[in-house]
Amino acid sequence: MDIQLKRGLLDVCVLAAIKNEDSYGYKIIKDMKPYIELSESTLYTILKRLEIANMLTVRTAEHDGRLRKYYRITDAGLRRIEEFKSEWKEVISIYQFVVREDSHE
Amino acid sequence: MSKEEFLTRLRSALAGLPQNEVNERIAFYGEMIDDRMEKGVSENDAVAAIGSVEEIASQIIAEIPITKIVKEKIKPNRSLHTWEIILIILSFPLWFPLLVAAFAVLLSLYIVVWSLIISLWAVEISLWAAALACIAVSPVGFIHGNIFFGLMLLGCGLFIAGISIFLFFGCVAASKGTVKLTKKIAVGIKSMFIKKES
């Protein structure tokens, strides 16, 4: 898939993974796995980018005698998801146009 | 590989990057391995699932902008003495041209590589032009009764067209290769700064 397109999509995927409850790295990857495979390094980059964009906040909490980072979505992050939903309608209509051209051949 | 070994190797592969950045990465991968082990995965498998140290390190290095790496590299471990600052300012006429020259050399290398590619494409385009011209002119030979001349032109045109088709694939491969090479060189320059520290 086109790298720029995928990058934007993965950002929204990660936001969606922490939308309902705070989550941590391994859980995010596990939750996304049925839909899309994500490597640890890629996730790190996405989380960093979203944190800088103020779309999520990070807190460190103790878990089982060790530290774990939890990610929480912000209002800006929630807005991004809504934005994506409305953008997606446009993408779907583009897709339908492309498919329609195919079936005419 | 054990978790400790993995993290130690990753740390030494990243030596030279900003320290807080390295710590953050190490903590992130450590947490990932711990979480996997908590779910019942063996330590070996949990480490293997993360991937190889070399792959991760080169991906991280490719992501970090070179300015950040250089900044970290030239950052002195202690604050500079006054005389050192004066010396740096006074030696400006010396080190500045050297710096400019170094960049100029890099830039010219880059230009040389790309001009090779451009000239390859120029040859390709001119071959096509020659082939088309030969084929277009050949009917003149036939019309004037000089069949051999016409045949020769037609043959030459087809021959040149054949060569340029071959060359086209060469051009595409060379262009792609150069793009890959320049990317590799960028990562290479970055890791030069990083490896020396370890």
Describe this structure in words.
The complex is a heterodimer of chains A (105) and B (198). By secondary structure, chain A is α+β, with helices and mostly antiparallel strands. Chain A has a single domain (3-104), classed as Arc Repressor Mutant, subunit A, CATH 1.10.10.10. Chain A has helices spanning 3-17, 25-32, 40-52, 75-104; strands at residues 56-63, 66-73. In chain A, strands 1-2 form a two-stranded antiparallel sheet. In chain A, a hairpin with a 2-residue loop joins strand 1 (56-63) and strand 2 (66-73). The two termini of chain A are 24 Å apart. Chain B has helices at 3-14, 19-38, 43-50, 53-63, 66-74, 82-90, 92-143, 147-195. The radius of gyration of chain B is 29 Å and the shape is elongated. The mean pLDDT of chain B is 85.
Number of H/I helices of chain B: 8
**Overall helicity of chain A:** 55-70%
Assembly state: heterodimer
Number of helices of chain A: 4
Number of domains of chain A: 1
Question: How far is it from the N-terminal to the C-terminal residue of chain A, by CA?
Answer: 24 Å
Major beta-sheet overview of chain A: 2 strands, antiparallel
The computed structural class of chain A is: alpha+beta
Order of helices and strands of chain A: HHHEEH
DSSP strand tally of chain B:
0
For the record, the CATH class of chain A is Mainly Alpha
What is the CATH-assigned architecture of chain A?
Answer: Orthogonal Bundle
**Rg of chain B computed from alpha carbons, rounded to a whole number of angstroms:** 29 Å
Low-confidence stretches of chain B: none
The helix/strand series of chain B, from N terminus to C terminus, equals: HHHHHHHH
CATH homolog superfamily of chain A: Winged helix-like DNA-binding domain superfamily/Winged helix DNA-binding domain
Protein structure class of chain B: mainly alpha
